[in-house]
Model the fold of this input.
Amino acid sequence: MIPYFELHVIPLGPIPIQVWGSFVALGIVAATALLSRTLKREGLEARLAWDLAFVAMVGAIIGARLGHVFFYDWDFYRANLAEIGMIWKGGLSSYGGFIGGAGAALVWLRMKGAPLLRITDATLAALPLGWFIGRIGCFLIHDHPGTLTNSPFGVQFPGGARFDLGMIDGVIGLLVFAVAFPLHRAIGKKFPGVTTAVAVQLYAVLRFMADFLRATDLPNSDPRIYGFTPAQYASGLLFLVGDYLIVRAVFARKKRLATGGPQT
Done:
């Protein structure tokens, strides 16, 4: 079983280094650097990756906060509207961040006239690596305790061993990266959209299953709506988005072959 320890701040002289924020920042830099290299290898503008990361990050922060406010703790925020903007007090939804970040990125790419599917494929091949690194920070501060367990993969939380959903979600990110990145290098040019579809569907399935391990017996446990968490409903919708992208990619491929258009 994994021993329990908390690491919130690393004192560096007079400057306290926040562990969670540092790993999130490191994950963003790592994923963006990998995306930049991928775009350059594919003949696209490498700098686009850094501009895209900034736009997506702003959208993700807004989306993550609003997702938490409206789907996880609306009763509190409805009575305390001034608290909605106080992000430093905590309260962010990962799926809200996905939606906000993706929405901002797609609008920006459309405005730039960039090749949308090629860039989203490259992004979804690199993003899970950053997700894994960022979730290391969640594990180190243990802000996502799960159900009680006797599993050797449990963490010895005070009061009883539990699953750590930050750790589990990080492992999910690493698994998605291990599939999506080599897949993109192998078939990305032939089947635009497939890398994105596979990445989001794989994450959706694994996240749906992992959310059954979320705690229900602790204060501020995630709400259940007809037995499922908000993230599980979002996972179902995300899986359907993947279905649409796969069907679109297959039909686009058939059309190119039928018309004698470029096949890469």
Remarks:
- DSSP finds eight helices and four strands in the chain.
- Residues 16-257 form one domain.
